[in-house]
Description:
It is a single chain. By secondary structure, the protein is α/β, with parallel strands linked by helices. The chain has three domains: 3-168, Ribosomal Protein S5, domain 2 (2-Layer Sandwich); 191-389 and 403-421, P-loop containing nucleotide triphosphate hydrolases (Rossmann fold), CATH 3.40.50; 429-499, Orthogonal Bundle (Helicase, Ruva Protein, domain 3), CATH 1.10.8. The chain has 20 helices and 18 strands. It has helices at 40-43, 45-55, 82-92, 122-132, 140-146, 160-168, 198-210, 224-229, 240-252, 275-279, 289-292, 308-312, 315-320, 363-370, 375-379, 404-422, 431-437, 442-455, 459-475, 483-491, and strands at residues 3-9, 18-26, 31-35, 64-70, 104-106, 109-110, 116-117, 135-139, 154-157, 214-217, 266-267, 280-281, 286-287, 297-300, 322-326, 331-335, 339-344, 383-386. The strands form six sheets. Strands 11-14-17-10-18 form a five-stranded parallel beta sheet. A four-stranded mixed beta sheet has the order 1-2-4-3. α19 crosses α20. The longest helix is centred in the last third of the chain and has 19 residues, at 404-422. The mean pLDDT is 91.
Amino acid sequence: MSLAIIHSRALVGVEAPAVSVEAHLANGLPSLALVGLPETSVKESKDRVRSAILNSGFDFPARRITLNLAPADLPKDGGRFDLAIALGILAASSQLPAEALDAVECLGELALSGALRPVQGVLPAALAARAAGRALVVPRANAEEASLASGLKVLAADHLLELAGHFNGSAPLAPYQAQGLLRRSPPYPDLAEVQGQLAAKRALLVAAAGNHNLLFSGPPGTGKTLLASRLPGLLPPLDEAEALEVAAIHSVASHTPLDAWPQRPFRTPHHSASGPALVGGGSRPQPGEITLAHQGVLFLDELPEFDRKVLEVLREPLETGHIVIARARDRVRFPARFQLVAAMNPCPCGYLHDPGGRCRCTPEQVQRYRAKLSGPLLDRIDLHLTVARESTSLHAAAEPGQDSASVAAQVAAARQRQMRRQGCTNAVLDLPGLRRHCALKAEDQGWLEQACERLNLSLRAAHRLLKVARTLADLDEQEAITRAHLAEALQYRPSSAGG
């Protein structure tokens, strides 16, 4: 047979579009042409494949070889197509039965010896192969990751010769059995380890229950970072679909092995991070920190120290739950449904209103410091809390607070009520949902409007205040929002937050 078609997968963002590797042998002077918009690394596969075939004991056809990677308008890069190209040449030259390759998809880079090397982004390809009803052939180093797609038949090999024996029928490979190597989840830090800070713990409970964004403000050493690191342990566990989505993102970003799967991500970028590092980018778009925090928590410490332009790019994903990276030839969409937790000092030195009088910042310096954060960005943060300094006694006999497990149980119950009522968390309620599920009595509505006017809150901030009140009612197991819930929600909004 002079024509063979091998199924493979490209990698575009966190998606794995299908690619057909077509190998055709024709009479003429020996040559090898590779078409289908290949990048440099794909073009170089010709030499890798030739050496791998010869060093594996096969004949490399001395004919005119044409390799087409279809669809032709989809850019292809990386060494992920090496294996498919080699198998296509062997099938087209009748050294392997072409019909045995119809029901599989192949990914893998070839060494010159014919050994298989791992590639990135295997999990999205595994999920797509499962949806297509085909088995997936991968290097053994990628097999555990591919096995996360339950129900998928994974064939793992270390060398091209192993696959040749399988497809020839002389030495069939057994389907790979998952070893559970990527399912070791370290425990989250416990909330009970935080001394005092009852108001901040209450804010964490509310944020976790309604999926609200949270801003801690306070002097250094008050436990803002300590509190933020406890939030993932309060959130409900990921379901299988969410866990696979998170794992696929980290697979694309080459963060293997996936040590924390299936835990919620907790990302803490440094304040010197650039815009592309935060939102993603590059000539070949890669996910940034907001995508790596998808279905988890993004913690921004020292918030005003981030470049203002970098922070402003958070506004769109905070509303939409995704980010679109536009390039001249294409647009790549990355998911970014994260929960933002930020921390900041009240002034440049951090000791504004300190009882000891340590602050030496002028009003102008404080104003410039706070002006680094725009009103529209602050409007998108539902809960604003000042974290006060606790006792500095190392032996303070503070009562032990609730541990993460007991708080997580309250969060889970509140979220179940939200899912039964509206099918989503309170933080992502749209305007019709807000009107339907956050209706107030006439007197409470008037009271709230007066409070918003007095605090100079924008309409967006007022809507978010209602969502927080809805979460407080859910925590109290009440269907109706009362004035007490509105009053507590107002305590989490600063005045003049902006527009």
